Amino acid sequence: MAGEGRATRTLTLESARPNNQRIIVHFAGFSDRDQAAVLVNGALLAEQSALPDPGPGVAYTFQLIGLEVRDTGGRVLGALEDIVKTGAHPIYVVKGEREWLIPAAPEVLLNVDLAQRTITVALPAGLEEL
Q: CA 80 to CA 68: how far, in whole Å?
């Protein structure tokens, strides 16, 4: 765990349970909310080897950032720099010669090849004119 302007500390997860769209966690050494307040706005980091396999056809965000994004004709649009969550589909922020905001909808996001480090997209009509 690393907080803005704060030191990194190692945390031991004691329990976790779903609560609506969130997960409530309990770390060893923190018995109440007041003690846990020092963790607010920190970044929770985990060893990649400790993460569960996300499953077939699914990837973690950190696995996607930096991948080369190409259109169906093989043209390189740039590298995936960020993923913006929206109500419908995430938006892929791709930076190359220009910035592209590409919806990660099933009809647009055609293929993700982690081994080749590429993402293939079918650009929606009119997106190039924006």
A: 6
